[in-house]
Amino acid sequence: MFIVTGGAGFIGSAFVWKLNMEGIQKILIVDEPDPEEKWKNLTNRQFENSVHKDKFLKDVMEDRMPSPVSAVIHLGACTSTTERNEEYLMRNNYEYSRVLAEWAVKKGVRFIYASSAATYGDGSLGFSDDDSTTLQLKPLNLYGFSKHQFDVWVIRNQLTEKVAGIKFFNVYGPNEYHKGEMASVVFKAYRQVKERGRVDLFKSYRPEYGHGEQKRDFIYVKDCVEALWWFLQNPQVNGIFNLGTGKAQSYNDLTNAIFTALRLPPRMEYIEMPEGIRGQYQYFTEAKIEKLRRAGYAQPFHSLKEGIADYVLHYLEKSREEQYL
């Protein structure tokens, strides 16, 4: 049995797609009911059962798993970077993760969990995934803080030889449609093009960056699930790893790629950034992926242009029913 927490969400459902592609259907989906669109992510997927995240946690604490477990891929979390309820975030993103990790290590079950590039804060300490750097990080928001606290717990409890943590950078791709404001810039920019023929980008408030030249390490969700699958196939590889392309690109680059895919001339408008986020805004993120490569992961990543073209032409431009993995 493969357990995927957050299995109805964006990366979770994409990973279930990957498992199905590999012929695996004995999957337990752990998530919470969503009256909106999240469960549509599983319409085309094959899995054995699904369970509410609270019931699952209780089953774990009482050691009542339904069948032998091959691996826990822990992707479930509150991912809102604007969430203000610290108690809620720590309960969902830190305490929940601790319980699962302790159970998995005790049982000798492969445990892979999602961390985040949000742990890097303003980037002043760089983007190295070495443990010594991780211990010094100062995230800018509560979401990043909750993820960081679990990374620190893993390191301080000497579990980096027993579990694998994945620091996802800016992920985009199919099955993110339910995420609302937390959806990728790619998805939101595409919707703007279709609705008004242009894309609004934030102005820059730092002289070293032009408008729209703020940069992120954008990674296609299909690349993410390939990496997760590799970690499953290589249980000897443990520690905390960045997962990005290793190449930062600007929002202007991203927007141009969308217009190119749609065969339209680019049209951008630069707007004021809300004052409430100016002090927490990251102007540059770029995954250092040398540790991942040294561990043996050799697969190439989609370029931003390639990933956006696949996403736009093979999913977003299709009928609603065809937009899901």
Write out key terms for the chains shown.
325 residues; alpha/beta; seven-stranded parallel sheet; two-stranded parallel ribbon; globular
Short description:
With 325 residues, the protein is α/β, with parallel strands linked by helices. The chain is built from eleven helices and 13 strands. Helix 3 links the parallel strand 4 and strand 5 (110-116).
If you had to describe this structure to a student in words, what would you say it looks like?
Helix 1 packs across helix 7 and helix 3 runs parallel beside helix 5. The protein has 325 residues and is an alpha/beta fold. The chain contains eleven helices and 13 strands. The strands form four sheets. It has a seven-stranded parallel sheet with strand order 3-2-1-4-5-6-11, sandwiched between helices. It is globular. The mean pLDDT is 94.
